[in-house]
Amino acid sequence: MDAAQIGRVLSSALDLVLPLSCAGCSRPGPSICPTCREELAGLALSQLGAVAPSPVPPGWPGCSGTLRYAGVSARLMKSFKDGGRRDLTGPLARLLADSVGRAVAADPDAGRQQPILLVPIPSSPAAVRQRGDRPMLVLTRRVARILGPAVAVAPALTMAHGTADQAGLDRSGRQANLRSAMQVRQVERVQGRDCVLVDDVLTSGATLSEGQRALQAAGARRVGMAVCMVTQRRSATLALPLCPSSD
What we know:
By secondary structure, the protein is of the alpha/beta class.
């Protein structure tokens, strides 16, 4: 095999593993093209205070977010989670790290003795089989590398039973679907610890609320929340402390 043939073989092999198009618009080029980067910047939340779904779930502690989930941000997250675009891990983790960092800083007393635990929302067994990995665990580990020794990744939550796809459910359906769906595998990992739940998108709040319930039941001292993106219709900024809603 001559040098030209070797070059062609290597080029073909790289085509299989390296993205040659933007995950936001499919144009040939980098993972996120300059145009999509500009659009992404325009989706930044106008205020960086705590956010909540509407109506606010009982006991909601507030959640940090970075972007609105719309347009290019939604396409990037879907490409990352379901399209196998793990080349987006770095950019998405940097956006998520901004949100996680604010959630960590929300309690100045937290993490003084031990690192704050970053707890990713678990994937269902079916999703793991389909995707081959756990996207939120991948992102959370990268976030921890960005934020340094003040935090530690603790994939402590697991699914206690199967759930339906949340996408087609309304708020009450999401709550019923996730009721008692999560549990902590090793209670001693979170007992007395400060935790931040980490997820990709805040929609109804049902997923994060269930994770919060499971961590609190296992004895976590404090449970904060952070997401990369917030659905636009539920992105109202709220001042803490929050009063639980009547529902």
